[in-house]
Amino acid sequence: MENQFQQNFEKKNYTVEGLPKGEYEACIFKHCELAQLDLSEYSFIDCQFHDCNLSLIKMGNTKWQNVSFVNCRLQGLHFEYANPFLFEVHFDHCFLNLSSFYQKQMKKAQFKHCSLHEVDFGNANLSEALFEDCDLLNAQFDQTNLEKTDFRTSYHFEINPQINRIKKAKFSKNSIAGLLTSFGIIID
User: Fold this and answer.
1) At a CB cut-off of 8 Å and minimum separation 6, what does 155 contact?
2) pLDDT tens digits in sequence order for the chain, 188 residues long
3) In DSSP terms, which residues pair with 117 in a beta bridge?
4) 19's torsion region: left (phi>0), alpha (psi -120 to 50) or beta?
5) Residue 81 backbone phi and psi in degrees, to 5
6) CA separation for the pair 95, 43 (Å, rounded)
7) Domains of the chain by range and CATH?
8) Residue 97's closest CA among 82, 80, 118, 127?
């Protein structure tokens, strides 16, 4: 296993030879191709990914501790299999469609300008999270803690207040319909 500290990885295609297994701390990945890799048992601590493709990676017990993704493609990821210890991820201008955060502890997580179509947030703790200008079309919220979560600029979400915790969550007047869909109410 390799240990990498404060390294920059730029314009690398790891889909052929793979990314060396190990711990990556304070590393920056830019314009890297990592799609469909098996990153199980890897560690990423205080890392940044910019303009990378990580779609369909496997992450059995992968550590993601204070990791930010900017303008990345992360389609079909199963974060529920990631190591839960100090799990912390943030996303800005990312494509996360068909991903899952089932049962993840993500207090104060940040999703900014992201596509989150059909993402599973079931049983997750998203208290005090920020969803800034995110498209949540068909995202699943079931038994999710959304207390103090900010949805004011997001859209296309449907959240059932009867099966989710939404105390002090923030919504805009324009998006209030997303809270009423489960009641079969028609709003014009």
Assistant:
1) 134, 135, 136, 175, 178
2) 789 999 999 999 999 889 999 999 999 999 999 999 999 999 999 999 999 999 999 999 999 999 999 999 999 999 999 999 999 999 999 999 999 999 999 999 999 999 999 999 999 999 999 999 999 999 999 999 999 999 999 999 999 999 999 999 999 877 766 665 665 655 56
3) none
4) beta
5) -90, -5
6) 22
7) 1-94 (2.160.20.80), 96-188 (2.160.20.80)
8) 118
Q: Which two tokens stand for residue 52?
A: 């990378």
Tokens of 72: 């990345």
Under the phi-then-psi rule, with left for phi > 0, alpha for psi from -120 to 50, and beta for the rest, what region is 118?
left
Q: 163 pairs with which residues across the strands?
A: none
